[in-house]
Amino acid sequence: MTPDEFRAFFGSFPTPVSIVTTVDTDGTPRGFTCSAVTSVSVDPPLLLVCLDRAARSLPPLLSAGAFVVNVLADGAQDVARVFASRSERKFSGVRWQPSAAAGGAPVLTELSVGYAECTVMRSVKAGDHWIVIGRVEAAEVFARSPVLHQRGVFGVWSGELAPVQG
């Protein structure tokens, strides 16, 4: 399978869009846009995020041992694009509060449908990425519509799933 075929497969269905945040050793906020987030376990509450081995947010995240997964809400599409870039000014104009449960990592309350404050339980090299498993220490959800990403386009979930008959 070629990298393009692999990307085409994973781009063929919508995924939620998150901004994963942490802080550097000097307290500087760091973050990146991530669609590779999934639950791992309910008891204990674990989730995982995947990020490129070359990601500038990787060393601070591993060093801090904590991060926040901010699942984006409608209206945060432009912010998702900024956090997907290599910009040094990702947090410019973005309001956030420090996480009490995740070492001060930025919580993007106004931009999210929910967030999970996590401590790193384990990290594993996997191909050109790292899988970081976090224990969810605290979380909150809001009544907003989530941003989705499919085939390079952002969209918004606006309805409920209908049961399939048969």
What would the principal axes of the Cα set say about the shape?
A: globular
Class computed from helices, strands and strand pairing:
mainly beta
Average pLDDT figure: 94
Q: How large, in whole angstroms, is the Cα Rg?
A: 16 Å
Low-confidence spans: pLDDT under 50, at least 5 residues?
none
In angstroms, what separates the terminal alpha carbons? Answer: 35 Å
What fraction of the residues are assigned to beta strands by DSSP? 35-45%
Strand order of the largest sheet: 3-2-6-9-10-5-4
Number of domains: 1
Full CATH superfamily name: Electron Transport, Fmn-binding Protein, Chain A
Percent helix, as a range, is 10-25%
DSSP helix count?
3
What is this structure's SSE topology?
Elements: H1 3-11, E1 15-16, E2 18-23, E3 29-34, E4 37-41, E5 46-52, H2 58-64, E6 66-72, H3 77-83, E7 97-98, E8 106-107, E9 112-126, E10 129-141, E11 147-150, E12 153-156
Antiparallel strand pairs: 1-11, 2-3, 2-6, 4-5, 5-10, 6-9, 7-8, 9-10, 11-12
In short:
With 166 residues, this protein is mainly β. It is built from three helices and twelve strands.
What would you say this structure looks like, in words?
The protein is mainly beta. The chain has one domain (3-156): Roll (Pnp Oxidase, Chain A), CATH 2.30.110. Helix content is 14%, strand content 44%. The protein contains three helices and twelve strands; from the N terminus they run αβββββαβαββββββ. It has a seven-stranded antiparallel beta sheet, with helices on both faces. It is globular, with a radius of gyration of 16 Å. The N and C termini lie far apart (35 Å). The model has no long low-confidence stretch (mean pLDDT 94).
